[in-house]
Amino acid sequence: MTAEQVLKQLKALGTEKMRAQNRKHGAGENQFGVRLGDIKALAKKIKSNHNLAMALWKTKNIDARLLAVLLVDPKSVSASEMDRMVRSETFVQVADWLSAYVLKLHADKEKLRQKWMGADDRMAARAGWSLTAARVVKSPDGLDLTALLDRIESEMGTAAPVVQWTMNCCLAEIGIHFPKHRKRAIAIGEALGIFRDYPCSKGCTSPFAPIWIDEMVRRQG
Question: Angle at the Cα of 154 (from 186 to 85), degrees rounded to 5?
Fold first, then answer.
């Protein structure tokens, strides 16, 4: 299957309702508006295909990039290619899929994490903080949690919104998993007030760090 054939299939699956929803969340016009479930179904049908994935990524089409993320082989992406891919995307849904399905499996993710933590590029910084939040939960040895809290306290208030989201995740994970730092993490969240008024559906936990931390700790019993 060629990239052109895949693009035709994606175009046929697109809807104006989904395009409007994507635009509401910051997408441009290079999209077909395909539902995420339909993209996953198509990926399951095609199966892993690295060359096709990279050809789809180059189109910069949102739906093609989402599909590419599901088809790509993380082992075949160099560190420099991974860096370019992260920096080239501006739509959060694509960036988050790239992080979840490719970046977190990448052999050089720690080297990239350290590089991106000081990046001026907002999507690279977002990815860096996302990887750091994951390390806080899964492999915190070697992380200076006090220094991370210092950075969050001084930088999150003026960070770009897309970076604030993953910085906030890191803040919450520190508070949830490390009782020693919980009081300070909650205090930082309260002082900054970021996501305090974030709209949440019934039954969902607020991303406001103090509420998020308290709720997750309560669930742990």
Answer: 100
Alpha helices per DSSP H over 25-160: 36-46, 50-58, 62-71, 79-88, 92-101, 109-116, 122-138, 145-155
Domains in the chain, number: 2
Write the pLDDT tens digit of every residue in 126-153: 999 999 999 999 999 999 999 999 999 9
Band the pLDDT of 118: cuts 50, 70, 90.
confident
Same domain as 46, residue 13: yes
Give exposure, 85-102, as e/b (b: 16+ Cβ within 10 Å): bbebbebbbbbbbbbebb
N-term to C-term CA, the chain: 51
Would you say 22 and 33 are in contact if contact means Cβ atoms under 8 Å apart?
Answer: yes
Clarify whether residues 24 and 117 are in a common domain. Answer: no
69 and 26 inside one domain: yes
| pTM of structure | 0.92
pLDDT value at position 177? 97
Chosen domain end from 97, 130, 164: 97
Quote the radius of gyration of the chain (alpha carbons, Å): 19
What Å distances lie between residue 139 and 136, 165, 210, 211, 212, CA to CA? 6, 21, 23, 24, 21
Instruction: Map tokens 């509420």 to a residue.
Output: 211
28 Cα distance to chain centroid: 18
